[in-house]
């Protein structure tokens, strides 16, 4: 009996297998008993950090160049959000489920880009619904806006909204949204641009699902700004300041000074950066932080110690190195 008990104990103490990326984990919804409270808390809390998930096989395969993450990075910087992570993943349900759960837990504001079109490989809505135990609901307001604002495609001259067809079914895939029926729908589906029918689906309180088309992504993100500003640590939306210095010195020549400077100012919330510019005669030094007054105080010292000049653009001082310009 003692031996059997020991064997049972060892069996129960073994770690459970990781199904995060398996089809078994994503074929049935995740049930979370406290999803409502968790989602409401995330929807209302102050925004300090942000995360981004770029979804699409075409990005990973090199067919499409992702510009949305760069746009989001500038957006977050200007609002004072600390963008902590950008991930690019394929049209794979297990990958989407794992990333969505983790990002929602780790960051205050999460944006996804891509995978919400009319074709079979657009699985973002379904995958994120499965990640949080939700069902897809055909959203009537989104459908009415689609009918009103979308233009008929020249290749579909006989399409009609009131007649069932494969084309209508494909279009409706884009307005079947992950909805938690125990919560207010108005907090889960946002219309932020009157010229667009495309909704922003908000899942688990902080995941904002946006299209991958850059023009739409950018317009919707800008339209979302008024809803975000009241939740920022800096409600006036001043964001973070960046100072840029151009130096003719090699990185190795300024490394010791920059290390000493970082040790002094980073505890005060100012980050020091050094960036080589390959093929150029000048490198870049940056100060980034919220304390503009302190940054202005140390700027002359930085300029002197790196034998450089303060600039607005990295290439601003390059002309002085061009013999044809002197």
Tell me what the structure shows.
With 326 residues, the chain is α/β, with parallel strands linked by helices. 38% of the residues lie in helices and 19% in strands. It is built from twelve helices and twelve strands. The protein has helices at 2-13, 23-26, 35-44, 57-60, 68-79, 93-106, 124-131, 140-149, 166-172, 214-228, 251-265, 292-305, and strands at residues 49-55, 82-89, 109-113, 135-138, 176-179, 189-190, 200-203, 207-210, 241-247, 270-275, 283-289, 309-311. The strands form three sheets. The chain has a six-stranded mixed β-sheet, with helices on both faces. Strands 10-11-9-12 form a four-stranded antiparallel β-sheet, with helices on one face. Strand 10 (270-275) and strand 11 (283-289) form a beta hairpin. The radius of gyration is 25 Å and the shape is elongated. The relative contact order is 0.12.
